[in-house]
Amino acid sequence: MSLFELASDTNGKTCENYESLNVSSDGSKLSMESADASQNSSISGDNFDIELSDQTSAKEMPCGLTNGAHSSFDKPSYASDSCNDLSEISEQCSKSSVISSKSSDITESDCLPNNTSDTHNEISDETKRNKKFCVAKISKTKSISVDFRLSRGIAQVNEGNHAYAISIFDQILKEDPTYPEALIGRGTAYAFQRELEAAIADFSKAIQSKPSAGEAWKRRGQARAALGESVEAIEDLTKALEFEPDSADILHERGIVNFKFKDFNAAVEDLSACVKLDKNNKSAYTYLGMALSSIGEYKRAEEAHLKSIQIDRSFLEAWAHLTQFYQDLANSKKALECLEQVIIIDGRYSKAYHLRGLLLHGMGEHRKAIKDLSIGLSIENSNIECLYLRASCYHAIGEYAEAVKDYDAALDVELDSMEKFVLQCLAFYQKEIALYTACKVNSEFCWFDIDGDIDPLFKEYWCKRLHPKDVCEKVFRQPPLRDSLKKGKLRKQDFAVTKNKTALLLAADSIGKKIQYDCPGFLPNRRQHRMAGLAAIEIAQKVSKAWRSLQADWKHSNRSSKNGKRARRKERISMASQNRGGSGCSTSSSLETSASYGITEYRSSSRPMMSWQDVYSLAVKWRQVSEPCDPVVWVNKLSEEFNSGFGSHTPMVLGQAKVVRYYPNHERTLDIAKTIMKDKLFVHNKADEIIDLSTEGKSENIVHAKSCDDLYETVGEDFWLATWCNSTAVEGKQLEGTRITLVKMGEHGYDFAIRTPCTPSRWEEFDAEMAMAWETICNAYCGETYGSTDFNVLENVREAILRMTYYWYNFMPLSRGTAVAGFVVLLGLFLAANMEFTGNIPKGVQVDWEAILNFDPNSFMDSVKSWLYPSIKITTSWKDFPDVASTFATTGSVVAALSSYDD
To answer: Which of 435-444, 524-533, 728-737 has the highest mean pLDDT?
Structure first.
């Protein structure tokens, strides 16, 4: 079924988001296959990201977080697994049991998102031999003939002859419709055939006939879990435990179901009890590791994963899950070591190559990633995850023909899960962006303008991962690749090594590393580092030219004033650029003109004057081309629906899961929420109505609240409250900062997040604030301070730069990438003022969160000065760097620069 054929089939459906029963390759057991992900934020250089609820429709697909990066365009509902790029690897559990007098089992195969098509059976031959099916308990009142037929029916189930087995059980049940063992046998055969409703009906009849049949309770629980009936499944498995309270097998099964339905605390309890009873249950240890990781117990999680491997060093799924665990924590060295072990064990294990490709992609090693993904595709040529990721890598390094070929192949893959549907939608949008970029490769980089050239509706659907049907009908499509390639492709000279290129790349690699957060979940990415360095240098060079013009005007103004002449009045005129692509090479509407930020100038002279938008747009453009999979766009350049307000969504807690990147900010955010609630004595509900907190006792409850549970109990429903930013432009004014939201998720979980709305009115307020902040920077440097190399003299310049950075982070005007763009501009402006940050951002510090969680710019400045200022070196050496804009003049040369490394 193709992407567009699936549209009507997926709208409003789960697309197998819930588990379905699956038969293992040897027909010996029942397994559950799931697309659910563990709750660790990984990441991914793809900042995939960021999502809607498990019942997400095709029209409201999730916007993920790449490596837990700020995800945007929040919809009313969202999934609890939005922070994962990778989480679970398919696993045939070692503890599958059989139809026996004790208990039997529908074991579960845990799936890596985007890898649902592969269920790798890693049960050893010895394990299989130990799992011979036993004859179910035989009733003493039945005849030998019935006993024989029952045994034969069970044997047929074991051999995978499910239809024949059902016919045998039918004969028995015709004679005795309430025979529990026959009902259990037939129900199991139905389950193998994925006839879950029929299976549940038989298990229910068995329970009615014999309430003490623990086997029936257990199997019905497993079947209900496969249908997504989590509450009923847990109830049945709990009932089964009443008959066998020390059954490691049932504890294992309930632990898996709890994990699948994101009750991680209960999963930890069950699986911990299981491994105490069965110390060699490698599957239980693996699931225990994933559950512990989800709730932030990383040390215990690692121990559980290692124990699973200790039990069986050839257990591929355990190695793969441990790989994911290390990648989630941004420990690339250990993740790569695990993958090397996997490939030694089984060089044909395709998931290993996909995982390593994904890890290398996240590290900015796109060419190396392509090699691994190609091996994976040689093993499994229709693997959509490998196809999409390889297309993305080809796209990033400028091999557009190969990228389009892989995007097309991904679009042709048969759909069988929501994850594949999302990838196909992304493949459609990414192909269009690849075609757009291909037609720009030989144009000057300044004409690469996604925000101005690409239709707002297209960008909105791309960011939201919506079905592209409406896009196809309403916007112009990019021309075919052959037309784009006629205009040019990456040329040899783009990759040619020159003295100027070498000098710039060495400087950029050193400067760009300064953007790196030393926090769990933030994987170092050399491609992003180089991007940041080149962008910072170009910003410094262009801002320096603008400041020279301003300084000349300042001097002239002073001379005029001394001579009694009136200083010239400065007026800034915004010059909107024209559509640079035209209908022939733009995914734009026929009436759309570019709204990218242009250069402003003085009407009284021809000297250029940059606006704050011009400065930040330089960083945004570099970020867009460095990782084309990430939809980095200005939010106000989306469709007219912008008027209804979009916003970023950055979760710290999702359900019971602690998001690895952002949970460290949880306690501080909770305290700020309490402070605001005590001060304002009201919050807002989902409908934006005020909830009064001034009633007796609530204020005291807020003071003593220690958790999300406590706050939610006090308010009594989902709510949000807004932080504020003290304005510099208008004395006494408070701007709306971010919104702290607490939303109930399931019985025991919450979505605790910050969400930043971007409405036109808010945009206007922050635009004015940013304009004032930028003017303050220019005034601070372009007067008597101009050209100074005295650290103390430049104090006002530093503070003005930090002040604008504070408002930028609270503004959050991009669909994603606000954090990195903000720090890149900071580095560039410091350079332009002869200051270079030579240190590193301290461990555990996330600069954007420092801004978001401070109400006043002065508080933010105080929080970063302690580590920033001691690492600032006064230098003018950057002035000797070759000009970035002329050295990397074309889009093709920029792509080549980001894709070329000595190794």
So the answer is: 524-533
Residue 33: phi and psi, rounded to 5, are -110, 130
CA distance 463 to 450: 13
Q: Cβ neighbours of residue 649 under 8 Å, at least 6 residues apart? A: 50, 63, 70, 71, 72, 74, 78, 82, 753, 754, 755
Residues 115-149: tens digit of each pLDDT: 333 333 332 333 333 333 343 444 445 556 667 88
Q: What whole-number distance in Å separates Cα of residue 233 and Cα of residue 257?
A: 8
> Tokens in use for 108?
């579960």
Is a pLDDT exceeding 70 seen at residue 168? yes
Q: Is the pLDDT of residue 11 over 60?
A: no
How many Cα neighbours within 13 Å face the side chain of 363? 20
Predicted pLDDT of residue 518: 97
Q: Which of 351, 438, 448 is nearest to 396 (CA)?
A: 438
Tell me the average pLDDT across 607-620.
87
The answer to which of 354-358, 562-566, 571-575 has the lowest mean pLDDT is 571-575
Q: Are 104 and 79 in contact (CB under 8 A)?
A: no
What DSSP assignment string belongs to 76-127? S---TTTT-S--------TT---S-SS---EEEEE--TT-TT-------HHH
- What does the pLDDT read at residue 47? 28
Contacts with 373 (C-beta within 8 Å, 6 or more apart), sequence order: 353, 354, 357, 386, 389, 390, 393
pLDDT of residue 258: 95
Alpha carbon distance 896, 881 (integer Å): 19
Q: What are phi and psi of 507, to 5 degrees?
A: -65, -45
CA–CA gap between residue 254 and residue 608 (Å, rounded): 68
Angle, CA 497 vertex, CA 496 and CA 503 arms, to 5°:
145
Look up residue 218 and give its two tokens. 């257990």
Alpha-carbon gap, residue 618 to 824, rounded angstroms: 10
Among candidate residues 545, 612, 599, the one with its CA nearest the CA of residue 772: 612
Q: What single-letter amino acid sits at 842? A: P
Per DSSP bridges, beta strands 657-658 and 835-837 are: unpaired
Residue 644 CB-density burial (10 A; 0-12 exposed, 13-18 middle, 19+ buried): exposed
Do residues 160 and 146 touch, judged by C-beta distance below 8 A?
Answer: no
For residue 352, give every residue at least 6 positions away whose Cβ sits within 8 Å of its Cβ, in sequence order, or none. 316, 320, 339, 342, 343, 346, 376
pLDDT digits (tens, 9 = 90+) for 460-506: 899 888 899 888 878 877 877 776 666 556 677 777 889 999 999 99
Cα–Cα distance measured from residue 659 to residue 67, given in angstroms and rounded to the nearest whole number: 10
pLDDT above 60 (res 10): no
The pLDDT value given to residue 228: 85
The tally of CA atoms less than 13 A away on the side-chain side of residue 768 is 11
- Chain mean pLDDT for the chain: 81
How far is residue 194's CA from residue 181's CA, in Å, rounded to a whole number? 20
> Please, are residues 127 and 109 in contact by the beta-carbon 8 Å criterion?
no
**Pairwise CA distance, residues 791 & 227, whole Å:** 66
Taking Cα atoms as reference points, which of 314, 312, 383 lies closest to residue 347?
A: 314
Q: In the prediction, which pLDDT does 496 show?
A: 81
For CA atoms 790, 791, 793, 797, the dihedral sign is positive
d(CA 354, CA 369): 9
